[in-house]
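Appendix B, record 7
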Amino acid sequence: MDESGRLLSGYRNQNSYPGFESRSLRARLGALLVLIVGWTLLAPAGRAQNPTEQYLVQRRAAGWKPGVRFDDVARDPAAFRDRVFEIEGRLTGVARNDDDSALLILSETPSGSLPLVMTVLPTWLQPGARVRVLCALVPPEDGEVVVGMPGIAVIAVASAVDIAAAEAKASKQAPTVRPGVAPRPTPRLAGRTGSGSSRKGSQVGSAARTYPGLSPAAGSVFPVYRDYIRKHNRRLDLRQADAITYAILRFSEEYDLDPRLVVATVIAESDFRISETSHAGAMGLIQLMPDEVRRLRLTNPYDPVQNIAGGVFLIKERLNRYSRSPNFKDATAHHIVLALASYNAGMGAVKRYGGVPPYRETQGYVRRIMRIYRELCGGGNG
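Structure tokens (predicted):
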């Protein structure tokens, strides 16, 4: 096994990563939900009749102050722990959960693609919409040291055009956003390091500050995963490798899946070629089929963040079904094999044959992923 493989297999014993076992970001929203309920109770009597009014009411109740940019929050998250802020961008992906909550992927923001947690998804919200999002940082766990940005939870969301028009009307000024014309996104701050070079996990470099929601343990292995990924596809530039690495670590943690299994799956599917398209029409790094893209309501299946988020969600959905548990630690190697087989050949085929279907492609696919996964786990069962 090469050096990258040894590092990948060794980190779990040397630096515990509980997020890859049973940690869920949604489980940490309790305190934030109490805060949101309190803000809502402070709102004036009478329920707003449309998303724009609801947004403005909740923004006032939450004590939002204009002038706070996402750049400010990203530079010093601790200073905004108990404050709300706004992000504007285009909604490019939605992954629904069974409890009516959802993971939103917002693009064209100062930090590229951002994952946002929303407890209740409005029925009107559709991918492609340019939206204004009222947000708060997800409270850290007791004793947790957060590297870079914590997770971001959505308090309210509305059309960016409608909010801009309402603000202009309130101030008796011309609208700052013309209908049908999207405003330019705030320029991304490149190379900003601040004083974080001495913080734990700062070896992640700019990636920890650019991408939110990475735990300290994920941040500590970020460079190792990124280097391993770039070795498999040397055509990836650093920004692409950062995005892929972030997506694998971030969504493996969010959906409780071993990131080494995701790495092995992407190698088998595309070998980290972002624009890969199969003869059957599967797209991107983890090869999402068109019907899966429609189901997840992704707008760009070749975007690394959207693609990995969708693939991890689908694999974990299958694994939960076969293991009958939402916790990865409860899944056996047999359950993982069934989840991979169904990802390749479909759940119907696995049910029909009572296991891995007798298809040469599927059997080779499962064997290859499990072999790579065992290597990344140091030759064990993972």
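Remarks on this record: Strands lie at 85-96, 102-109, 112-118, 130-137, 152-159. The chain has two domains: 1-21+215-382, 24-182.
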